[in-house]
Amino acid sequence: LKNQLLTDHGHNPLMKKVFDVYLCFLQKNQSETALKNVFSALRALIYKFPSTFYEGRADMCSALCYEILKYCNSKLSSIRNEASQLLYFLMRNNFDYTGKKSFVRTHLQVIISVSQLIADVVGIGGTRFQQSLSIINNCANNDRIIKHTTFPSDVKDLTKRIRTVLMATAQMKEHENDPEMLVDLQYSLAKSYASTPELRKTWLDSMARIHVKNGDLSEAAMCYVHVAALVAEYLTRKGMIS
């Protein structure tokens, strides 16, 4: 079924069903042994069907990054290590797929997933997660094949960006009972990603949820109008609307 699975760069109903099975294993509680086998199977899937994750739509790459990053915060050090290495493999494979030019697709989806996880997972960004970031950095620094490329410094830049987001979130936690200060911090973070529409949208959505929670509906509406403008501008640049 390989040819069918590769149709439209892997964005077809059959691949979606196969991928959803893999994703289900990550989303349900598994034993340590089962998870290690799932991680191994995912490596094989990524290796055999790279275009599914690095070409066309980003939904599968996004979903995979989100689930792997959750395991980077696992209480079990062995699972954190396996998850970190799988995430590194996803980035490294992306780099190879582009002819050793960049891993922009995975880089962006990891940052977006971290931003989403902050709101969804309690304790993300603690010591366990920081250790996983260090494992990823070490993998890049010790990979001799790509030692003289931009990859190690790009990985370092990614982990640095993640830590910046986590620090900003820690500040937000300190001011969670001060709605105005909290929104100001959210706005600053959204503004810092002006060149990355997907990330700016993520934080504007988060700002809107805070406004709705506080009953500031007109402010929430402004956030959504801004999001709509971002999407329209992006689609116009892509030539999808005029």
TrEMBL record:
GO terms for biological process: small GTPase-mediated signal transduction. Residues 191-242 form the DOCKER domain. Signal peptide: none annotated. PROSITE patterns: DOCKER. Pfam families: DHR-2_Lobe_A. GO terms for molecular function: guanyl-nucleotide exchange factor activity. PANTHER family: DEDICATOR OF CYTOKINESIS DOCK (PTHR23317), DEDICATOR OF CYTOKINESIS PROTEIN 9 (PTHR23317:SF77). This is DOCK9 protein. The gene is Dock9_0.
